[in-house]
Amino acid sequence: MARPLPLLLLALGLAAAAKSPYQQVLQHSRLRGRQHGPNVCAVQKLIGTNRKYFTNCKQWYQRKICGKSTVISYECCPGYEKVPGEKGCPAALPLSNIYETLGVVGSSTTQLYSDRSNLRPEIEGPGSFTIFAPSNEAWAALSAETLDSLVSNVNIELLNALRYHMVDKRVLTDDLKHGTTLNSMYQNLPIQIHHYPNGIVTVNCARLLKADHHATNGVVHVIDKVIATTTNTIQQVIETEDSLETLRTAVAASDLSSLLESEGQYTLLAPTNEAFEKIPRETLNRILGDPEALRDLLNHHILKSAMCAEAIIAGLTMETLEGTTLDVGCSGEELTLNGRPIIANKDVLATNGVVHFVNELLIPDSAKTVFELAQESEVSKSADLFRQAGLSSHLTGSERVTLLAPVNNVFKDGLPVIDSNMRNLLLNHIVKEQLSSKYLYHGQKLQTLGDKELRVFVYRNNLCIENACIAAHDKRGRFGTLFSVDKMLTPPTGSVMDVLKADHRFSTLVAAIQSAGLTEILNRPGTFTVFAPTNEAFQAMPQGEFSKLHGNAKELANILKFHVADEILVSGAVNALVRLKSMQGDKLEVSMKNNVIHINKEPVAESDIMATNGVIYAVNYVLQPQASRPQERGDEPADPALEIFKQASALSKVSQRNPRLAPVYSRILARMKENSGGL
């Protein structure tokens, strides 16, 4: 019964050790500043501004905030002060009431206004309060009109504003949990708290600058803005903003209003009217008229969590309600989306999140046509080719297709001329259904708009459709999917024998296959890889050797079978070395060197000549299986016994030089004579 006590103590120890992100960053700043004395924190200051940040490890080495350079300064950690003549910050700040503490921590303007508004007696007296005190710079940043409206009526507006910055209990940074709300001392209106993994804490999107300053009657946190009450949901923000009129119409048509009115913590990247106007009218009408595409478009603008601008000090990836991701970052004072500074107005706070106005529409792949996907990617030249061939209608409508589009590098020497043959070839780059590459399987058959059947080959390091291998991740559009492939596809036109007969380079090989009785094998359904010697290869054989082969059908068949493997290997599957078992039985070694396929270390003349039952490589030499290569004694087979005697002879010479080995040699020789019948 007593054993659980150590476990309880361990759990308590772990709980105590689990610091909040803010405390972790503060601890790192302490470690970096300790060489300057006790309670010194390293602070990164953005050059040219007064913005300071406690540093984490990554920022320490990068020396950048939002892509801008910083300098390191050293100052007293929160709650401590310098002592003349001593190193560091050895003294704790004197503990006094909240009113006095405001003057010590850099919020003397808040102290002044609390005096004017008659809040001073309350924050000097007994109790337990937390105040999120705007810094002096925060008050100075208010417009003259806003500040005048507060200060001119000190007994009401200013007091209410200050009480909205207060909570009637002591709340430290460890208690400021991400996504929680605190009831303020002004009509219990909520204050939104966000505590981000990078250590930044925001209060209604105002950043905590100096935290956890203890007072006799509470705690003071200094923030970088004067915060205002908010009672509108995200949906109400949309309804009241004139610049979001088009968005308002789109939200109503997509039935997303209820979501944007519900409880939660979202970030809406709200496209302005200007953003919608930048989109081609045809594209916009298509999306607005398609409920599914419209919903995907809007969900792509909604992040799953509230992200205040002050929390973004470097790039990060955020997930949208649509299931996609956006790269959210910053460049100086500007927020960026996918690397572009398109956020026009940031941190419009709502009760269920935050709204940033964006001046460009973010169209997800799922709302685009496959033609639009191709135009915007590394296959834009292919898109132009399909347009020239008059096939773009298949890629812009509601037809379910998959486009196999060669990457731009395939056309580095220019686009091919469009004729009937090229148009038919391009039709065979469009598969009749919308596919996902991760669900393709080896041997799968795909039907094209050109009425061809394409095969899928799955290899360890690649996924190929006929001779073309997928070069990038899929892009899945509204009705079509884009597969970027590494070359133009060449659909098969006949069996291996059909292809060889149709190519004059292989006339000698065709005759040899017929003489060896292999025609039927290479005509039947199968999965062959054929390394086909050209006429030139046979002509290069030693004089009389080919005639000798032709006179021996069995030996000819043996040689030819060594050129055939019973599996399909296209060039895109060869990364380093691949070993294939030939029909003759010996192994073939296929490798890639300088972007050229090699068979048994010799380069091939042409790769990936596709057939319905295999693939052909043209080679300018005749491959020789191991058993057919010349031996040391001409045509005589190697004799294992002879090799043993050679070794025995060598051992004899050694034994003559070393008397200790002589008996061993004699015994071995006697045993060998016994086994060989007294040779």
TrEMBL record:
Residues 95-227, 231-362, 366-489, 493-623 form the FAS1 domain. The keyword Disulfide bond applies. One of its GO terms (biological process) is cell adhesion. Keywords: Cell adhesion, Disulfide bond, Extracellular matrix, Gamma-carboxyglutamic acid, Phosphoprotein, Repeat, Secreted, Signal. The keyword Repeat applies. Its main location: secreted. GO terms for molecular function: cell adhesion molecule binding. It is found in: Secreted, Extracellular space, Extracellular matrix. Pfam families: Fasciclin. Binds to type I, II, and IV collagens. Plays a role in cell adhesion. May play a role in cell-collagen interactions. This is Transforming growth factor-beta-induced protein ig-h3. It comes from Cyanoderma ruficeps.
